[in-house]
Design goal:
Layout (H helix, E strand, L loop, with lengths): L2 H10 L24 H4 L32 H12 L6 E5 L6 H14 L6 E5 H14 L2 H6 L6 E5 L8 H16 L3 E6 L11 H8 L2 E4 L5 H14 L6 H9 L5 H18 L5 H7 L7
Parallel strand pairs: 1-4, 1-5, 2-3, 3-4
Helix pairs in contact: 1-11, 3-4, 7-8, 9-10, 9-11, 11-12
Length: 293
C-alpha cells in the first residue's frame, strides 16, 4: 500500500468492532436478583447488545503480531501456557495501563486456543457488554437464564474489568460466573488497568476470586521494543519508514503503543496530504510536541 492509498483509507475512518460473542451459560443462582444502584441507574436506557458475528472477531491479534520485550515477557509466557493447554493456569488476570497490549494478548489466547481446538466454545466480552446483560436480566427478572448462557464456555475473556468498579451487583454476577466456570474446569482471562488488589472500586468478593488465579502485568516498552513495534506497524501499513523518522518517533517516548501508532499515522497522513517525502522536519510538523527523550 502506498502512502496515498494509506491516507485515503485513514480518512475513510475505521469501523468500531464490538466484542465477539460465541456460545452461552446456565448456572445455579448464587445471588438473589435484587436491584442495586448500578443496575437501577441503567434501567432508563434502552437495551443494548454489542454482539457481533464470530467472523468479525480479531484474527489479526495473535502472538505472532505481538512484539515481545522486557516489559511483557512474563505476560506472554503465561498467555502461551493457557493457549497451548498447560494445565496449571485456568484463571489469568492481565493488568496494564491503557494501550499497552493487554487486550491484544487476551485476544491472542482466544485465537491460538481456538486454532488448536483447545477452546471449542470461546467468548470475548467487554465489561460494558456484561453490564448491559446484567441490566437486561434484571428487566426480564431472569438471572438464571443470564447465567446459563456462560456455562458451556471453554474460554471466557472479560476485557477492561475496571469499567465495573463501584458496580456492586454487576461485580457479584461476574464473580458468580467466573466461579461457575472455574469449578467446571474451564478457563477465564481478565484484563484490567490494575492488579485486583490495587483496582479501586473492586469488591472484596470479585477481588478474592481473581486473586485465586495468576496476575501478570504489561509495562511500558523500552526504546528497543518501541522501535520493533514501530517497524511492525510500518510494514503492516505498507510504509517504508526512514530510519531517522523512526528514531524521532521512538525518542518521543509516547505514553503507550496506541499513541505511538497514532503519531505514525499522522506523520504518514501529512506526507500524503502535502505531497512531501517522509522526513524528520515533516514529522516535527505533524507531531510538534517537544521531544521528551
Amino acid at each position: 500500500m502506498n502512502r496515498r492509498h494509506f491516507f485515503g483509507a485513514l480518512c475513510a475512518g475505521a469501523a468500531v468492532i464490538a466484542p465477539a460473542t460465541i456460545g452461552g451459560i446456565g448456572a445455579t443462582p448464587r445471588v438473589a436478583p435484587i436491584a442495586t444502584d448500578d443496575v437501577v441507574a441503567q434501567l432508563g436506557k434502552p437495551p443494548q447488545s454489542n454482539a457481533i458475528p464470530e467472523s468479525q472477531s480479531a484474527p489479526s491479534l495473535t502472538f505472532q503480531t505481538f512484539v515481545p520485550g522486557p516489559n511483557s515477557e512474563e505476560a506472554i509466557a503465561a498467555a502461551l501456557r493457557i493457549a497451548t493447554g498447560t494445565p496449571d493456569i485456568n484463571l489469568l488476570c492481565i493488568a496494564s495501563d491503557i494501550g499497552m497490549g493487554k487486550t491484544h494478548l487476551a485476544r491472542a489466547i482466544e485465537n491460538e486456543g481456538t486454532r488448536r481446538r483447545r477452546f471449542v466454545r470461546a467468548r470475548f466480552c467487554h465489561a460494558a457488554e456484561f453490564v448491559d446483560e446484567v441490566v437486561r436480566a434484571y428487566r426480564q427478572r431472569n438471572f438464571e437464564r443470564f447465567r446459563s448462557e456462560y456455562r458451556p464456555l471453554d474460554l471466557l475473556v472479560l476485557d477492561d474489568l475496571q469499567f465495573l468498579c463501584d458496580k456492586d451487583r454487576t461485580q457479584q454476577e461476574m464473580a458468580a460466573v467466573i466461579e461457575e466456570l472455574l469449578d467446571a474446569g474451564r478457563t477465564v482471562v481478565v484484563t484490567t488497568s490494575a492488579p485486583p488488589g490495587k483496582c479501586d472500586g473492586l469488591s472484596d468478593c470479585l477481588a478474592s476470586v481473581l486473586r485465586c488465579g495468576r496476575t501478570v502485568t504489561v509495562g511500558a516498552p523500552d526504546a528497543k521494543t518501541r522501535r520493533k513495534i514501530l517497524n511492525l506497524k510500518s510494514r503492516a501499513y505498507g510504509i517504508d519508514l526512514p530510519d531517522d523518522v523512526a528514531r524521532y518517533l521512538v525518542r518521543r517516548r509516547p505514553r503507550n503503543v496506541r499513541e505511538m501508532e497514532g503519531e505514525l499515522k499522522r506523520v504518514v497522513a501529512y506526507s500524503s496530504f502535502y505531497g512531501e517525502e517522509l522526513s524528520v522536519p515533516l514529522a516535527r510538523r505533524a507531531v510538534p510536541r517537544h521531544c521528551r527523550a
